[in-house]
Amino acid sequence: MAKESTYKAEHIQVLEGLEPVRKRPGMYIGGTGIEGLHHLIWEIVDNSIDEATAGFATQVNVVIEDGNKVIVTDDGRGIPVEKHPQTKKSTLETVLTVLHAGGKFGGGGYKVSAGLHGVGLSVVNALSSYLKAEVHKDGKVYVQEYERGNPKADVKPVGTTEISGTIISFIPDEQIFPTVDFDYNAIITHMRHRAYLTKGLKLTLTDNRGGKTKRHGFYFEGGIKSYVQYLNRNKEVVNTPPFYVEKMVGETMVEISVQYTDSFAENIQSFANTVTTPEGGTHLTGFRMAINRVINEYARKNGLLKDNESNLTGDDIKEGLTAVISVKIIDPQFEGQTKAKLGNPEVQGHVQQAMAEYFKYYLDENPNEAKKIIGKASLAARARAAAKAARETVIRKGALEGMTLPGKLADCSERDPKASEIYIVEGDSAGGSAKQGRDRKFQAILPLKGKILNVERARLDRMLSSDEIKALIIALGTGISENFDPSKLRYDRIIIMTDADYDGAHIRTLLLTFFYRHMKEIVDAGHIYIAQPPLFKVSYGKEKSYVYNEAEKDEVIEEFKQIRDEKKAARDAKKSIKKIENEILEESADLEEAKEISSIADAVSFSEFADLQGINVQRYKGLGEMNPDQLWETTMDPENRVLLQVKVEDAEKADEVFTMLMGSEVDPRKRFIQTHAKTVKNLDI
């Protein structure tokens, strides 16, 4: 895109004031939790990246100091400092104190930006207890400091400089954020994404907290082509090198990279102006239309599809597909406050045009890679046909047999899905206890025999040959593959309940792999939970406590020891007083005095000391060791139980972990085990 050579006060347009930010921070950063806290960094970093996208910056540095002070530096043009024509204040103060003041509203500051609302600097200022802006521009250094959005003094020059750029330092306000503690790894992930999406930009992160320094740097000449290779680093790839195109179509910069792997899952990351769009949008639609058409046309033209064969479907073509789609546009129209979906209709045609033209060139110029891609899609088509037959069998089985399943589902009487839950239980023994201990009104039990199929390494046709997976699909009621309908889910909570050992953890991982790969909408909607059965029962006399880890066990033992010691001391005191009482009674001729001493002894008496013999610790290795009452009390009773809700905070990381742990490549899994072997705890042997 063409560069705008000047960046002046008239480029900054003022739309409205700043007052609402501190009162309703969630409207601007999504909330005051950990995600909202990190959003402050994203706003400042993305502003600097906008300078790089426009061609005026080459480097962005982020430093975290003790006290969670953040310093973001870029070598861009520097925020304008001259008096703004509308506010009559310094332009720097304007963008720091007025909501919707920035170079992103048609004023000529930026043709492309990551910010839809352009509220970044002012919002960060409003939500920081301290902020300092330092601008290097036109040979001078300008500084202004703020406290909770209020300037301490006017913008003023403090020296000379030979560089240009902006340095923003801020400390999040603890009056706004209950917890102020930045996650180094979360910042790394964000900056890695931004580096891939802005090729040639150098980003660094330095963490100086706690007297130790950690540092990461990112620089990718290959842009999203490097990103695709990173996503596939633990997978066996089909086509090398990846397809890549960067093309200006109309006013849209289109950048796409594609590579197939031996995986059965699809992994597509889409972005608009470097902002991730997890729900896709018009750019993703244009991409799918183009790749489907080009692959089928190439296959027909080169005899890779016979005349009597149907076209490859979108499901066939997306199997094993890894793609990154990035568009940069002047006026992005996002759907919803979270910018999850791009809505610009013209972008669909722009992406479709660029992808179709250049992907056709790629296939023509790389015939061996083209045959591999189409061969994989054709194999997927044959598997799809086999899966369709198997799936129809599953549907018929479910319709004819109702819920009398191979897994012996014990259903609940409640028919409202929102008021129902199902426990997926490891083994018949635990299943029996769970069935007896449950509340039959709203709790269903589905025992599974052994370990289910690893679906990371199996297509749908093989999956549906597994009795356990078929039972699970029918019990949930959603169907599978193209017949999957999350609105038909029969239970609001799907609770995985396995033993607290490594076999239980393996079964849990296999189930999570199935849900993530084939029912991801259920995971995203928050329907999947993991039960937390206790590891120990600690008892002392009539007292008992169920605990979930070693540290908690030790705490309870210490508490019981204290109770035991207090009782022992009281018993000894009673014995001493009783002894004194008897001695006095023997020596005293005063009956009233004897009665008084006797009443003192009664006041400190204890009815029992029989439980002083010891503290008992029982280790539960399996759910089957608990009787139904114990299982209900500890793991199934909504009043007492502990459930972990499964959430996908980082889809890219989740895909990486499932691929590494459950995929066909052994070396990444071996490296992971070697790396973490010394930190493993509670491993049963």
From TrEMBL:
**Residue stretches making up the Toprim domain:** 420-534
Question: Which residues are marked as site: Interaction with DNA?
Answer: 451, 454
Its localization reads: Cytoplasm
| UniProt-annotated binding residues for Mg(2+) 1 | 426, 499
The cross-references to CDD domains, in alphabetical order and at most eight, read:
HATPase_GyrB-like, TopoII_Trans_DNA_gyrase, TOPRIM_TopoIIA_GyrB
PROSITE patterns in the cross-refs: TOPOISOMERASE_II, TOPRIM
Residues reported to bind Mg(2+) 2: 499, 501
**Transmembrane found in the keyword field:** no
EC numbers, comma separated: 5.6.2.2
Q: What is its main location?
A: cytoplasm
Offer a single GO CC term for the protein: chromosome
InterPro entries, from UniProt? DNA_gyrase_B_C, GyrB, HATPase_C_sf, HATPase_dom, Ribosomal_Su5_D2-typ_SF, Ribsml_uS5_D2-typ_fold_subgr, Topo_IIA, Topo_IIA-like_dom_sf
Query: Which superkingdom, per the lineage?
Result: Bacteria
Example GO molecular function term?
Answer: DNA topoisomerase type II (double strand cut, ATP-hydrolyzing) activity
Q: Which GO terms describe its biological process?
A: DNA topological change; DNA-templated DNA replication
Look at the named UniProt entry and state the broad enzyme category this protein falls under. Answer: isomerase
Which SUPFAM superfamilies does the entry link to? ATPase domain of HSP90 chaperone/DNA topoisomerase II/histidine kinase, Ribosomal protein S5 domain 2-like, Type II DNA topoisomerase
Query: Which sequence ranges form a coiled-coil region, renumbered to this chain?
Result: 553-597
Cofactor(s) the protein needs? Mg(2+); Mn(2+); Ca(2+)
- Function field: A type II topoisomerase that negatively supercoils closed circular double-stranded (ds) DNA in an ATP-dependent manner to modulate DNA topology and maintain chromosomes in an underwound state. Negative supercoiling favors strand separation, and DNA replication, transcription, recombination and repair, all of which involve strand separation. Also able to catalyze the interconversion of other topological isomers of dsDNA rings, including catenanes and knotted rings. Type II topoisomerases break and join 2 DNA strands simultaneously in an ATP-dependent manner.
The record's family statement is: Belongs to the type II topoisomerase GyrB family.
Q: How does it assemble?
A: Heterotetramer, composed of two GyrA and two GyrB chains. In the heterotetramer, GyrA contains the active site tyrosine that forms a transient covalent intermediate with DNA, while GyrB binds cofactors and catalyzes ATP hydrolysis.
Quote the protein name from its UniProt record.
Answer: DNA gyrase subunit B
Gene behind the chain: gyrB
